[in-house]
Amino acid sequence: MNPTETMPVGRGDGSASASRAPAMAAPATAEATGLDFGLLLDICLKTIYFAGRPSARLIASRMALPFSVVEELLKFLRRQEYADIVGSAGPGEAEYQYALTSRGTTKTQEVLEKSQYVGPAPVPFDVYVELTNRQSVRDLDVDADGVAEAMRGLVLAPQTLTQLGTAVSSGRSIFIYGDPGNGKSTIAAAIGSLLPGEVLVPHAVEVHGQRDATLVGELDGVAAEIEQDLPQPVLMAIHGHCLGAGLEIAMMGDIRIAADDARFALPEPKVGVSLDAGGDLRLLTEIGAGWTRLLAFTGRRIDAQTALRIGIVQEVVPKDELLAHVRSLAEEIAKNAPLAVQGIKRTINYRAEQGLSEALRFEAASASQMFVSDDMTLGYKAMAEKRDAGFEGK
After folding, report:
1. Which of 86-95, 162-171, 356-365 reaches the highest mean pLDDT?
2. pLDDT score recorded for residue 319
């Protein structure tokens, strides 16, 4: 959600009326967004490029901006002969359909070389800071009865309940640590129920003319370092849950060793989002199209032995022996001629990654459109409430 739209902000006192406060009036012009006009034009071009023949209303929806702002952008693109009206989906200018000209297509491809981001207009950093401060929970008042009610159904020691209540009341960040499966996620969800009102989180943040690096951008950087810049082989030691981004990072390694308690999955489609950091593309190289489709389409979890059988990992060892085994393997590799090993890595990666860069750019742009879908909102809400999402394909 772009905070340039009018949205309520929770005050944290629990009342239905008092927990809603105005955030910021919607901008009437591109200048009023606080964003660079060129940045808005770039996003508008990419939105049309991937949508085909979108109406102005659809463009405004995907950019999370009022029609008046998008209308200003579209008029500029038409004057520059980057886009033109090619039809109408209904009465009114908001239903005019737009397509890129050949000049606009060339321009958009140049823009995509710099940034593949497509989606809601980013939030200016100063606006992000202001709204973050206004959504502080430092004044939240939580009593023992409220904590007990939120944790109802969980078997927790009284001391743990007291610690949780103190932590929540502090209004500071909370770090919950423990072995996989010990209830961390359930406790975190229960803590969330203690926080009334809404929390506005931007899809992207603009800092000095640039979109802030998201998880996708960070993972791209990690992949480049591991696969291209780092000459030594990278060994991945995996135990517990290796899901979503965790599996995508694991697939960037040269060799993967799993503990017998490891579980693997790409759960993104279960919450209404697409894969965006290349995990499916790297799986395609390692395990083939059939298994990649099965895992990516279903979000199904598999155990370590299945991951070994289909080729996600190369070895499975007892959990207690994992680190010692991986260190031993690293030492075995290190005894060989360094230049030879590094040359072999470069050659294997060169062959395996043919076409990967272009596919990653396409995947990032395609996946970013999911961030403005109703399905993503339904998916995350359903996950928090532990129920089926009932996706609508919107």
Report:
1. 86-95
2. 93
| Tokens of residue 10, six digits | 């929770």
- Measured CA to CA, the distance from residue 385 to residue 379 in angstroms comes to 10
List beta partners, residue 245: none
Buried b (16+ CB within 10 A) or exposed e, 228-259: eeeeebebbbbbebbbbbebbbbbbbbbbbbb
CB 338 within 8 A of CB 330: no
* In contact, 97 and 54? CB cutoff 8 Å: yes
* Mean pLDDT computed over 344-363: 65
CATH 1.10.10.10 fits 1-121, yes or no: yes
Q: Strand runs (DSSP E) across the chain, as ranges?
A: 83-88, 96-100, 123-124, 205-207, 210-211, 235-238, 241-243, 255-259, 263-265, 302-303, 315-317
**Residue 2: its pLDDT value, please?**
43
Query: What DSSP state is assigned to residue 205?
Result: E
Query: Using alpha carbons only, how large is the chain's radius of gyration in Å?
Result: 24
Query: What is the mean predicted confidence (pLDDT) over 171-180?
Result: 76
Which residues form the catalytic set?
A: 248, 268
CB atoms within 10 A of CB 214: 17
Determine what percent of the chain is predicted with pLDDT higher than 70. Answer: 73
Three-state SS letters, 322-388: HHHHHHHHHHHHHCCCHHHHHHHHHHHHHHHCCCHHHHHHHHHHHHHHHHHCHHHHHHHHHHHHCCC
Q: Is 243 helix (H, G, I), strand (E, B) or coil?
A: strand
- Token pair recorded at residue 316: 């499975």
pTM of the predicted structure, to 2 decimals: 0.52
Domain residue spans of the chain: 1-121, 141-194, 215-379
Q: Is 215-379 the same fold as 1-121?
A: no
Q: What is the pLDDT of residue 357?
A: 57
**CA-to-CA distance for 99 and 84, rounded, in angstroms?**
6
- Is 215-379 assigned to CATH 3.90.226.10? yes
Whether the predicted pLDDT of 43 surpasses 90: yes
**pLDDT tier at 216, thresholds 50, 70, 90:** very low
The DSSP code for 94 is: G
